[in-house]
């Protein structure tokens, strides 16, 4: 029979073990480099990425089209509806047979559209390639946009927009983007509005598909357990006859952040018992040379649980259940925002503390110890994001849509390690918006209207109103 150790002895043993762990030399995170892959351009202009990975017998395939909400024009939500409607059936297979083909094999199929790109993706076992890859190609190239299925999908999306506005945290970013970019393409809500989505017809979807879903505006990405020569032949066979009609989509300027003066968008939700807020301004593009090092700096401010913002607004003051900050990147530019929420009576205190904490970037800067901790955190978080074939396919799609060179990925460890407190200060001065801050408040306007006025010129909108500005 084992005799339990006295509590004092147990505590001493635990303390000794912890001290030993803290004293042990830290091992540097393994340097991450993007696995090798081939890039091929077919005669019809289609870009093809092929990355072999033989660790597991799985394949991830992804079609990425450079078209999204920025191409919706006067019909917000059109790209969103089109992206999802690709899965409603083809000329040869209805939705039920497609769903059955993938479900029966335990495979996954998904589609959708974002701000600047639309995606169809599938993940399946290597043994199912012969059955599912041709069906995937058919979905991308021969959708039939069945009118009855489209009507059901459109109705679900309209209801989804209505429901999203019941939870401000679901829509605050959409209000923020609309406020910052105004009438420019980046200001178009990807989800559309209730009225714009409800008005979309089968012909609108068909027209959008014909304009933007074309081989010279798309990439096919295959990552997984295959031989590149054989897979290239398969892709050429399945996609080589895909033809574009009409001129290629012209390049366009999707807009810049409008922040010539401090502004507040107050979104009135009369029954709100909380205030949800974003504070910030212009950010960076996804391919910005400072992208990696800014992730480290932002980790200190609001990129992890032990960040300044979360410590001050959640841990130390109890004003909120969480606070963070983020650079939301786009292909041509981006936004930066501090985000949080608080009980209605605590709105004034939470906003003031968020501003005060943000100002620490300039008043005190980031010391060497804090920076070292953030660097270790970022290096530990980065490689696990790109372990699976699906994650790597997503990364390659992101690189294609946002014109990101592989050097940004391969030099990740170097860029993190070379960041110094002095360089961090320069990045703060260069990229973090300090003046003319833009603020979105979603809450009970009657109770927070006067508070809003202290942070800039106020414009007001009802959350029940159609649209986001």
Report on this structure.
With 469 residues, the chain is α+β, with helices and mostly antiparallel strands. It folds into two domains: 38-239, Metalloenzyme, LuxS/M16 peptidase-like (Cytochrome Bc1 Complex, Chain A, domain 1), CATH 3.30.830.10; 284-432, Cytochrome Bc1 Complex, Chain A, domain 1, CATH 3.30.830. The protein is built from 18 helices and twelve strands. The strands form two sheets. It has a six-stranded mixed sheet with strand order 1-2-6-3-5-4, with helices on both faces. Mean pLDDT is 93; it is low at 1-28.
Give the strand tally: 12
Kindly state the mean pLDDT as a whole number? 93
State the end-to-end CA separation.
Answer: 72 Å
Rg is 25 Å
Q: What is the structural class?
A: alpha+beta
User: What is the subunit arrangement here?
Assistant: single chain
Low-confidence stretches: 1-28
Strand residue percentage: 15-25%
| CATH architecture group name of the largest domain | 2-Layer Sandwich
What sort of overall outline do the alpha carbons produce when their principal axes are compared?
A: globular
Q: Helix amount, in percent?
A: 40-55%
Total of DSSP H or I helical runs spanning 4+ residues = 18
Order of helices and strands: HEEEHHEEHHHHHEHEEHHEEHHHHHHEHE
CATH topology descriptor of the largest domain: Cytochrome Bc1 Complex, Chain A, domain 1
Widest β-sheet, arrangement of strands: 1-2-6-3-5-4
Which CATH top level class of the largest domain fits? Alpha Beta
Number of domains: 2
Domain Peptidase M16 N-terminal: 57-190
Signal peptide: 1-28
Pfam families: Peptidase_M16, Peptidase_M16_C
Keywords: Signal
């Amino acid at each position: 029979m084992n005799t339990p150790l006295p509590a004092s002895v147990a505590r001493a043993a635990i303390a000794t073990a912890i001290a030993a762990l803290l004293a042990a030399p830290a091992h540097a995170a393994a340097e991450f480099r993007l696995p090798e892959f081939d890039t091929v351009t077919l005669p019809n202009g289609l870009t093809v990425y092929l990355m072999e990975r033989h660790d597991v017998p799985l394949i991830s395939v992804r079609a990425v089209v450079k078209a999204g909400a920025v191409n919706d024009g006067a019909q917000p939500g059109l790209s969103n509806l089109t992206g999802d409607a690709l899965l409603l059936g083809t000329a040869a297979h209805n939705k039920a047979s497609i769903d059955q083909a993938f479900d029966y094999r335990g495979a996954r199929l998904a589609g959708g559209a974002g701000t600047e790109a639309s995606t169809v993706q599938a993940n399946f076992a290597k043994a199912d390639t012969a059955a599912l890859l041709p069906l995937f190609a058919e979905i991308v190239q021969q959708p039939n946009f069945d009118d009855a299925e489209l009507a059901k999908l459109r109705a679900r999306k309209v209801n989804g927009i209505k429901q999203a506005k019941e939870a401000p945290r679901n829509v605050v970013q959409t209000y923020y983007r609309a406020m910052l970019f105004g009438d420019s393409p980046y200001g178009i809500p990807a989800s559309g509005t209730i009225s714009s989505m409800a008005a979309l017809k089968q012909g609108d979807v068909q027209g959008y598909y014909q304009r933007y879903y074309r081989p010279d505006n798309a990439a096919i990405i295959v990552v997984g357990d295959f031989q590149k020569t054989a897979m290239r032949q398969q892709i050429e066979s399945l996609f080589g006859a895909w033809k574009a009609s009409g001129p290629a989509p012209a390049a366009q300027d999707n807009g810049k952040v409008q922040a010539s003066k401090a502004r507040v968008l107050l979104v009135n939700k009369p029954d709100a018992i909380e205030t949800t807020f974003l504070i910030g301004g212009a950010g960076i593009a996804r391919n910005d040379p400072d992208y990696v090092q800014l992730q480290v700096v932002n980790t200190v401010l609001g990129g992890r649980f032990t960040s300044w913002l979360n410590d001050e607004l959640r841990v130390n003051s109890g004003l909120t259940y969480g606070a963070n900050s983020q650079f939301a990147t786009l292909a041509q530019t981006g936004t930066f925002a501090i985000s949080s929420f608080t009980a209605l009576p605590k709105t004034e205190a939470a906003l003031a503390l968020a501003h005060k904490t943000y100002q620490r970037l300039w008043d005190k800067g980031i010391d060497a110890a804090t920076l070292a901790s953030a660097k270790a955190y970022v290096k530990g978080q980065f490689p696990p994001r790109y372990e699976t074939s699906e994650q790597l396919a997503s990364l390659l799609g992101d690189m294609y849509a946002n014109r990101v060179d592989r050097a940004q990925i391969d030099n990740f460890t170097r860029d993190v390690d070379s960041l110094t407190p002095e360089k961090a200060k320069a990045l703060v001065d260069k990229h973090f918006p300090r003046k003319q801050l833009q603020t979105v408040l979603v809450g009970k306007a009657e109770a927070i209207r006067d508070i809003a006025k202290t942070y800039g010129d106020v414009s007001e909108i009802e959350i029940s109103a159609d649209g986001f500005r």
